[in-house]
Please model this.
Amino acid sequence: MNNCRSWRKRFPEAIYGDLDAETRRKMELHLSACGDCAGLYRSMAAAVRKMEARPAPDTARAPEFWEGYWERLEARMALEEARPARETGRTPRRPWMPSWAFGAVGAVLLVSLGILIGRTVLRPRPEIGPLARTTTTATGPGERAALETGSVEPALAARASRYLRRSRVLLLGVINSAPMEEDPFRLNLPHQKKASEELLLEAVVLKNGFRGSDRRLERLVSDLEMILLQIANLASDPEASDIEIIRAGVESRDLLFKINLRETRLPGGRS
Amino acid sequence: MSREDEARLTDRLINGDPSAFRELVEAFKTKVYGLAYEMTRNHTDAEDISQITFMKIHKATGTLKPGLGLRTWVYQITHNSAIDHIRKKAFYPRDAMAPPASARDFHEPADPAAGPEKAAESACLRRRIDEALAGFSAREREAFVLRHYHDLKIKEIAEAMGVSLGAAKSYLFRSLQKLQNELDDTEACPGGGDRT
Model:
């Protein structure tokens, strides 16, 4: 099967005659022994031959269009050259800084201002009540962990732990894939998509079971749901940008870190 | 234009031969226009992009180095100009853009001497090919067009598009796979649509 994949990847080169004689001979040997590959090769080559019916787009233009092309280009070039002279009132561009840099600096300043306002003006006031309760009731490390984890039933906690473990493996597999660098046949992600669908169903069960008993875990499951939904809806041949969006979502929500953290706290998780 | 002719033209451009630029325009105008058209699916945009490309080339002849593939360099600049143009155009609603070529430009039979049946079959096949190309992603279409219409090798396609060799291979493979899937159904055109 691997042999088939490596040969199929080279079909376009073979169809367009870009293979050297030795590789071509080896491919023909493979095609004579593999009916599936031979069939795919034949239909691909036939599709390329059918392209003869579609002329190159430049032929859609009348000959007069091409005859006057140089004159039109020359006129436009002259116009472009004359333009800076006419626009003398324009502010000269700063050669030390490209124009996009101004936008970037503006964006950074805006974000910094937002953070500053958030930290100073909109900062929530510390609530004394719950803090006091925590410090008084949770004395040992086991009890503190129980408070953070919430009062999830042991069976549900074990199920959540399994869910997180599976989600972590799935996310790592997807975000570390590089569709453009890899074998195109490996880009179909049927297993990952199926696993995502299963985990989405599992998430519904878990969230029903939590019923507010562990809000952090519930939030984590909700965050995971968003990403799992994206994976489940991936095209069968995803673009690098699709994976990049998923990767950015995982990173922006610190999902892998949160999963690791929760796994150490849940029963049956990593310690 | 052969590779040797290209190398000679490159040398003349580097040496500042005033007639070399016009020769380059004459040699590449249909190719540059063709690629720009495939990327934008619009003849007006294609002419605009092709002119911008040649203006950029005119300004950048100083950066040209002997031994560099002239055609790869020209396609690289075309690719970048088209991408810039598409990004600017993206602000306009999609409906405002011109329809694909099949509806307007390729409506006439390829060979008027052929019978009406053959002409209908050919027109149908052209329409289906165009529909298939419209289903490609922008990069798949560009890789395919560069290989099919412009005869670029995979390494040159990768250089022109500014992607890795593996990515260029992937784009090309996927485009052929999509084309094959679209054209496999030979019953969709009268006479089977198979011209092989």
